[in-house]
Amino acid sequence: MPEMPEVEGLVEFLRGRLTGHRFDKAAVSAINALKTYAPPLTDLIGGAVTGVERHGKFVDIATDGGIHLVFHLAKAGWLRWYDALPATLIKPGKTPIALRVGFDDGSGFDLTEAGTKKSLAVYAVTDPNEVPGIARLGPDPLDDDFGREKFGALLTGRRTQIKGVLRDQSIVAGVGNAYSDEILHAAKMSPYALAATLSDDEVDRLFAALTTTLAEAIDTARGKPPAELKDAKRRGMRVHGRRGQACPVCGDEVRSVFFADNSLEYCPTCQTGGKLLADRRLSRLLK
Questions:
Q1: Where is the Formamidopyrimidine-DNA glycosylase catalytic domain (predicted)?
Q2: Predicted TM-score of the model (pTM)
Q3: Residue ranges of domains in the chain
């Protein structure tokens, strides 16, 4: 799933390519991806791009006509950029392409989604806050006014596992499964630690890990075209997606805990005092 660093990389790329150019084409080929009907997507045509911004993991392309094209790539979505947009006809249901957008210089992009579970979402709105997922976003952890005290206040009283807190977009915007693993590894903290029970020192470590990990990942993503962002993300991971490999800090084996539709990765030596966390799949079989 694209998270804050990759989405920020996409936003910077699109901002540099699209600002000042006019929409020439906007066509949905997966009707379930379009979540709004007014204004119609066709109202984008002729509008000049005035800016591209990120809201959590949402991309927001604004136009001088007052219409915003907003999209969320979900778990298996991605953006495929073309300097020259293909002229081939897209057949609904026969392609992973959910949306094709073209501009007056001949460039454009497709939004694609792999797999059978379709969650990619596209919106045409006059105000980004009309998108429910944006309206309920918590603060962005890299905003200038997001400090350690504000972060600590968000954790106070939450008897929820810290892994879930970091992934909850209404608490902190932009972090998903992969970077929450990386942040907790950098903070030397168990994913099962309860937010409300963290000491001041642990909150200090977690805040530092949160901001540093995301800032470094954004620096890695910066300047890369969309086709390179996924591989750059994978190469930068220390524990996420590296089950069975050696932890780069201590050399212990990176372990996984599996859930219904995802998994988490952690280092027992660095994060849990050597304790192995229960595999939820095995636990269900033993009941």
A1: 2-96
A2: 0.94
A3: 4-135, 148-286
